[in-house]
Amino acid sequence: MKSFEVNFDGLVGPTHNYGGLSFGNVASQSNSQQASNPREAALQGLEKMKALMDMGFVQGVLAPQERPDVAALRSLGFAGTDAQVIERAAKEAMPLLVASCSASSMWVANAATVSPSADTSDGRVHFTAANLNCKYHRSIEHPTTSRVLGAMFADQQHFAHHAALPAVAQFGDEGAANHTRFCRDYGEAGVEFFVFGRSAFDSRYPAPQKYPARQTLEASQAVARLHGLSEEGVVFAQQNPAVIDQGVFHNDVIAVGNGELLFHHQDAFLNTEQMLAELHGKLAARGGNFQSISVPRDQVAVEDAVRSYLFNSQLLSRTDGSMLLIVPEECRANPRVWQYLQGLLAAGGPIRVVKVFDLKQSMQNGGGPACLRLRVALNETELAAVNPGVIMTPALYDTLTAWVNKHYRDALRESDLADPQLLLECRTALDELTQILKLGAVYPFQIN
Asked: Which segments does the entry list as coiled coil (predicted)?
């Protein structure tokens, strides 16, 4: 039976803004308070989805969240009508209003961790929504994320959904941004690679000193247990605390993997040689031939990797067995990174093609091509069981493009978030979107 890796890209929401909410994310903080363009951001994302679809990849779309999150503001003591809640929050606690308007759910690499049926004990695809409890503006996402994923992957014969882990620091979980999977074929048993920044209970693991380590070892272990993964099919590795302190807030900012290949910076991990040997041995036991490409620090410094998002790229398998690397425009704009990529292509290794996409709106808020997609490996039967409304087609692309042009503003500043009309615009747009994507009632305003 044929199997696929399907990329479900996050659709940028109508309240896309630069709130500078993510401490440790250099791009997010450095562009704080600038005017954003939600319409352009959403269209840039849709163009990437269409391009991958046109290249022959199975492409899906994951809906954004309802913003502003009035229910979250009510839970913090703001009362009255929805308009009054927004008005009072803007007057008394503008940072909380900005957080409740965050469109960060577009980075669906943080939405959940996904294990394919070939790896799990019950032979189903498992999803665990990430609690994202390191940042308040992201910690409010997982209830809606769970409902949206449940509407997309509803067939319980094929799909299993787990609630987010306890929302405490010891189980900080950032989803697939710190998880990847290696395999000979997407339909065969593979090795799932969990990367953590710190341990909550074991002091032997060093922690960063400047920025928080968002993913804990304990969270990664809990997800592996929930998904029914075997010890032979899992590797846990620690991210280098020194690179976290340089702005590498998730592993997908310093490494990316696909198939049998890990593409990573020389300084990405602690105990790198031991980790690579474990990956090689466990994948070999499952019939695979693990390979790695380590980018030397003297060719690409960590700072260049963070600024260009070289590793926050999509590594995709082509029909001829080679790989395609999808990178943001910022990689071409960085001379050292671009020179390295040209040398990589000339070397004739597994990565044969590099394609550049303009994702400026997303990049300025701290997320690139890899952040925008959740990877789900599915066989033909499972793909047929996915809600067909969320699979990209030329007709859906045209419909979503028209939807964005109809509902999204072309400029948004912090002061605009206090406009109650923005909430009405968002709800109107999302109500129409759930009909387009055939999701049913997944948003609080549709349920309550």
From this structure: none
